[in-house]
Design brief:
The structure holds 2 protein chains of 2 kinds.
Chain A (H helix, E strand, L loop, with lengths): L1 H6 L7 E12 L6 E5 L2 E8 L5 H18 L19
Antiparallel strand pairs in A: 2-3
Chain B lengths: L4 E5 L3 H12 L3 E6 L6 H4 L3 E2 L8 H23 L8 E2 L2 E5 L2 H15 L8 E4 L1 H7 L8 E5 L3 E2 L2 H14 L3 E4 L3 E4 L5 E5 L2 E3 L3 E4 L5 H5 L9 E11 L18 E3 L31
Parallel strand pairs in B: 1-2, 1-13, 2-9
Antiparallel strand pairs in B: 3-8, 4-8, 5-7, 6-7, 10-11, 11-12, 14-15
The chains are: A alpha+beta, B alpha+beta.
């Protein structure tokens, strides 16, 4: 709230209608995980958009659907392939 | 020929978007989700303005392509009778007190929006002009305005995608799901009401992805961070003129400062994950 008011002090007298909190899945700084799980070629992950999900996810979902239905995508998803296994966790 | 039967675990924007596209492509789709409190889709401010982001490489490419995809998505949803997902081109302000940092933002925006129709035009604004667009703004902040910046209502978007998927034959089941390994490398989706058999499973369970895939012996190196947005009403803040709005828009203030809000990703793993070469299945068309 104090952060918000530092940017927009003119909102100080405003009434607070709602605070929304959500858990953002973070895959890492290189973007989400999109693609098959190692060892499970019929299981696909589509998650980890962080704060960018509302921008990225509709397109990512369309690309993943194309991959599942046709075996290929117009969009290069190779950078978002789920890693084989998490390390050290 | 009937398409494959696909179970989508998760009904936030990732699951709903995948389900809609799968159903449109002829798959027989079952969406399974118990919708726990804390779904990021429902809490997001929905600012669609990737061009000032500090992300680079494929992550930025996907970010920008995602914003550019919205007109197509809206068209595809309209074809199945979904008229409104709460998407509005409002224009965006990136506000910043430090002029040198604002120079960097302006340079990035000009470079990335050149020739990108959906991004519109970029304009550097002084304190007074910035406040004219968004009166509650702190007086010491300068800003860069992007006319193609937009907002989407995450709850309406999710509902629209699910409605579209349903109209194309998808079934939505309200239940918690876990994957159960089955024979021949396949798996079933286990719910309290029984197993959902599927040829393919998509795990789009957001912050809960690991609890869904754990029975497969898999764990993705993802983590969670809390995203917050505030909605307020103000008697002193005048409505914005025309289509213009603010990057931290009139009724919603982002938790972080505007210039930092796209780069701050607290809680991410320190080390980037190692990725192998893409499987044959991920080749480009």
């Amino acid at each position: 709230m104090s952060n918000a008011l530092a940017i927009a002090p003119g909102l100080a007298p405003a009434s607070l209608i709602e605070t929304r909190v959500g858990l953002r899945p973070l895959a890492g700084e290189h973007g989400p995980f999109l693609g098959p799980v190692a060892g499970h070629p019929t299981v696909f992950v589509n998650a980890g958009f962080g704060p960018a999900g509302l921008t990225m996810a509709p397109l990512a979902g369309a690309a993943l659907a194309q991959l599942i239905l046709t075996g290929c995508t117009n969009l290069d998803l190779s950078a978002f392939e789920p890693p084989e296994q998490s390390r050290g966790r | 020929m009937a398409g494959p039967r696909v179970a989508v675990v998760g009904s936030g924007v990732a699951g709903a978007g995948t389900a809609f596209a799968l159903a449109a492509g002829g798959a027989e789709v079952v969406v399974v989700d118990s919708v726990l409190p804390g779904q990021a889709t429902a809490a997001g401010a929905g600012i669609i303005q990737p061009w000032s982001s500090t992300a680079t490489g494929p992550a930025y490419e996907l970010y920008a392509a995602g914003a550019a995809y919205y007109p197509t998505l809206i068209e595809r949803l309209a074809e199945v009778g979904v008229a409104d997902i709460g998407y509005r081109v409002t224009g965006s302000l990136v506000a910043q007190a430090d002029a040198a940092r604002l120079d960097e933002v302006e340079e990035r925006l000009r470079r990335r929006t050149a020739g990108v129709a959906v991004a519109g035009t970029v304009e550097r604004l002084g304190e007074r002009d910035a406040r004219a667009l968004f009166p509650p703004l702190a007086p010491e902040l300068g800003a860069v305005y992007v006319s193609g910046g937009a907002r989407v209502d995450g709850r309406m978007l999710r509902a629209g995608l699910l409605a579209g998927a349903r109209r194309l034959g998808a079934v939505v089941v309200d239940a918690p799901a876990r994957l159960v390994p089955a024979h021949t490398g396949t798996c079933a989706v286990h719910t309290p009401g029984g197993d959902v058999g599927a040829d393919v499973v998509v795990v789009a369970a957001g912050a809960w992805v690991n609890s869904v895939v754990e029975p497969l012996g898999y764990r993705s190196p993802s983590s969670r961070s809390a995203g917050r947005s505030l909605t307020s009403s103000s008697r002193t803040a005048r409505p914005l003129t025309g289509r213009r709005s603010c990057r931290s828009p009139a009724t919603t203030s982002s938790r972080s400062t505007p210039a930092a809000s796209w780069s701050a990703r607290p809680g991410r793993p320190a080390a980037a994950s190692t990725r192998g070469s893409p499987p044959a299945g991920c080749r480009r068309c």
